[in-house]
Amino acid sequence: MDTTAIFPKGDKLSNDWFTGNAFLTAFIANYKNNEFSAGNVTFEPGARTNWHTHPKGQVLIVLEGEGFYQEEGKPAQSIKRGDVVNIPENVKHWHGATAKSKMAHIAITNFKEDVQVTWLKPVSDQDYIAVNCK
């Protein structure tokens, strides 16, 4: 099995919105003929997003590694290569790598007017450790 990354690691994302090291290779920006952005996000082990929402939803397509996706008030779901996660509009959630594996996914994020994401508080280390221990 070929384990070579499909896309380059990209540019480091801000720790204002991510815990740990996450990187973005942008593919498509919001432009006249589309109302979405798309890119590959690579999370090093332990890296994750803050809690956040998308006013018009988001789709994640996992390319490699293992990670988690969790909606507020629900148990975290394990995600791995080949999984597709359809995130409804305005659902508070987070996603990222497991503590022991990196994870890369394509993120397709819709815009509502000029907004595609509302960033919220970080996922606590305590909550993240609890998810990794299940």
From TrEMBL:
InterPro entries linked: Cupin_2, HNL-like_cupin, RmlC-like_jellyroll, RmlC_Cupin_sf
One Pfam family here: Cupin_2
CDD domains listed in its UniProt record: cupin_HNL-like
Domain Cupin type-2: from-to ranges: 41-103
Origin superkingdom: Bacteria
Name of the protein this chain belongs to: Cupin domain-containing protein
